[in-house]
UniProtKB/TrEMBL annotation:
It comes from the Bacteria. Transmembrane segments: none annotated. It comes from Candidatus Anaerobiospirillum merdipullorum. The keyword Cytoplasm does not apply. This is Sugar phosphate isomerase/epimerase. The lineage of its organism: Bacteria, Pseudomonadati, Pseudomonadota, Gammaproteobacteria, Aeromonadales. Residues 21-289 form the Xylose isomerase-like TIM barrel domain. GO terms for molecular function: isomerase activity. SUPFAM superfamilies: Xylose isomerase-like.
Length: 293
């Protein structure tokens, strides 16, 4: 059976300490924690050693593994060298946080690239590859894996793009974060195609669910999330949307995946779509655990 983590994107009303306690109470095995200034259920970008130790102690007390950290840096492909180096330095700090917290993964955006942007794509892709190889070396020395998410407004928006990018980076500490819901609402590959293209590179998975808005098509001006007017879907409790999680999980298990499932319950962005994590994330966990693999 897969281990299940709850993502603090789903707990905007909770502090990190309260979110950890919630994960214990709803039967999760671990937690994925946002690293971003100003978010109640996250760690600050410049996190003090004292706070890191307190968070680790809380997780240990509640039997919750801090499995992944999620910073929001994305300009690893920037042609502005000062900007690119600042992003690299930020991830190196987060790798240091993993040492204290015991986290094994860091979610990474595959650069920053708005849809339709064709400016110096080869040069920017090469910068992204250079950044990931440098960070991969640091991550490996700390026992951490960087997982590049299938995500809009990046150079890893599709499974095809993600697999090609990881193959070219060619670093065992830089892998793919498989997010079929993202591939679905960005109108990229179906799950069968996505798994065939990229599963050999997948080290971590996000799980969420959705239903489509009638007649809407996806667009986003922001790498982190679409604005309300840009959305083509509503987010849902896992099992109440269109993503066929039983089939997906059976297939990745058949292919040898036995890693983590992280519930990227998007209440932070879409609080009107789904209930509090104590309800909806628990129902999602119960649904996943009931799938016969």
């Amino acid at each position: 059976m897969f281990k299940i983590a709850g993502h603090t994107m789903g707990t905007p009303e909770y502090t990190v300490f309260e979110a950890i306690e919630l994960m214990h109470n709803i039967g999760a095995d671990g937690i994925e924690i946002v690293v971003q200034d100003g978010y109640k259920s996250g760690l600050p970008c410049d996190c003090s050693p004292e706070l890191l130790e307190q968070v680790k102690a809380c997780a240990d007390k509640n039997g919750i593994q801090i499995i992944c950290l999620t910073p929001y840096n994305s300009y690893f492909n920037s042609l502005d060298e000062e900007q690119r180096q600042a992003e690299i330095a930020a991830i190196k700090r987060v790798i240091g946080y993993c040492d204290v917290l015991g986290a094994k993964y860091i979610r990474i955006y595959g650069g920053n690239l708005q849809a339709g942007d064709t400016y110096k794509l080869v040069e920017r892709r090469n910068k992204l590859i250079d950044s990931m190889r440098e960070l991969g070396n640091v991550a490996m020395a700390h026992g951490v894996t960087l997982v590049i998410e299938n995500h809009f407004n990046t150079m890893a928006v599709s499974a095809k793009d993600s697999a090609s990018l990881i193959a070219e980076i060619n670093h065992e500490a830089v892998r793919i974060l498989y997010d079929q819901a993202n591939l679905t609402f960005t109108e990229n590959e179906d799950w069968q195609t996505a798994i065939a293209l990229q599963q050999s590179y997948v080290a971590y998975m996000h799980v969420k669910d959705l239903v489509f808005k009638e007649g809407a098509h996806f667009k986003s001006s922001n790498v982190a999330r679409p604005e309300e007017s840009e959305r083509n879907v509503y987010t849902r409790i896992v099992g109440q949307g269109v993503v066929p999680w039983p089939e997906i999980l059976r297939k990745v298990k058949e292919l040898g995946y036995d890693g983590w499932l992280s519930l990227e319950y998007e209440r932070r962005w879409h609080p009107d779509d789904i209930p509090d994590a104590s309800i909806g994330m628990k129902q999602s966990i119960d649904y996943l655990r009931a799938i016969k693999l």
